[in-house]
Amino acid sequence: MSPEEKSSKRSEGLRQRLLHKLLYCTGDMQHLHTLMQDQPLSVQLLEWSLRGVSSVIMVDNPVSGALILIALTLSSPWQAVLGSVGLFASTVTAIIIGYERVEMSRGQYGYNGMLVALLIGVFSAAGDWYWWLLLPACLAGATTTFVSSGLAPVLDRWDLPVSVFPFNTVLLLYLSCTGTSNPYYPNYPAQPLGAPLINNNTQLHMPKLLKGVVLGVGQIYACDVLGPTVLILGAVLLFSPIMALHALLGSGIGTLAGLSVSVRQDALYSGLTGFNGALGCMAVGGLLFTLNWRTHVFAIICAFLSSYADIAFSNVLANMGLPSSSWAATLTVILMLLVTGRALSSYRIQSRQNSPEQYLQTPSQWTENNISSNLV
Q: Where are the bilayer-spanning segments (predicted)?
């Protein structure tokens, strides 16, 4: 064998090993989750926390969670600290209360705590590294676990997820309690998306508009920096290309919705009009329903409804200085889940444990798989 052939084989083998390692990190990484069962609680808690970080954007992958945490640190180290405190507080509270380990290990009690802590930091007028803010971030994160526990039995009657109801509820309670003139925890008042323009310039800057579509994905984590947002999108892509595609599609739809009703240009450019659309599109187009042409159309409809509802909620709640956060996507997705028509309800995924790609089957196939897995 010639030296050239040996070198070619070595490079081919290296590519195969790299590809194998990359594939190892895709999907929900159930193999890693299984290996973690015999590890000390401190090591398991790290995996649970990373899954909680990724669960904010409906992803269940610890490597994706690590990438997202890196992205948040690059965007704002202080925000990364606040989010981690909220995540840790909510997860530890769930452990102390004694919730099911299966749910905790999937990060189900962590993402609401992280979200509320991130938004507390975003609306704080005290600036970065205001250490007293760690106290409400910790308390609010723990409170989301209690709210989640209280809502679960009620929503289970209609087979509905708790989703981010705890985050939205606790954030509104915190901002309503502290207000904008609190001497210790002052907040910026939320601005309505439909506020009148300061000037009469109606020309759009297309590169900024396209950048806003991408930033709509990052705004799910209150991140408005392009580089970290691309890393967040890459983390979603690592878990599921379907979810990443629907995230960008939903954000783009949200931008179109904002353009159609002439929202503030800075909201378009920063991605604020896109993140609810992204959340609604991702939830219907892969997370809660198996993907086919019908559910894809419903995902687009959900993205439009979420975006328009967000603009309406923003204009109303901003009168009280409160943000609409992700109420629009949450309520719109609940509405889609309550639709009783066979065209949608027959494709509902009852137990989400895998990436959407593993559900690309006919309804009868994955129903049979669910039945057989329950019998084992």
A: 52-72, 78-97, 109-126, 132-152, 230-249, 269-290, 297-318, 324-344
